[in-house]
Specification:
The protein is an alpha+beta fold. It contains four helices and four strands; from the N terminus they run ααβαβαββ. Strands 1-2 form a two-stranded parallel ribbon. Strands 3-4 form a two-stranded antiparallel ribbon. Helix 3 links the parallel strand 1 and strand 2. Helix 2 runs parallel beside helix 3.
Length: 114
Amino acid sequence: MAARAPVVQRSKDSGLAVHPDGKVNRLSVGERQRVNILKALFANARFLIPDEPTAVLTLQEADALFATLHRAMAMGLAVIFIIHKQLEVIAIADRSIVLRHGRVVGQVATDDIN
């Protein structure tokens, strides 16, 4: 299959452990997220906007997702992470923007959050 080799290579290069012969409907939620990030990298996406991506993940899966997102960001992908959990914001973000009723009510460098 011609598409298999590029998937294997991109998976290896990005550190996104995705099995190219796996069936998506049989993957865990965390594995599906990795597939979606890999698809974004293949499409040369410049932005990824996950909305509450950790809501249904275990702590270990959330940690793996953060590692995956950090690798994607190192590859040039900008990530706008929509989340309500402050500890997760601190774990993943460079800076934080707080919205309330669709309006920006604050911005802060994540290092300045206490």
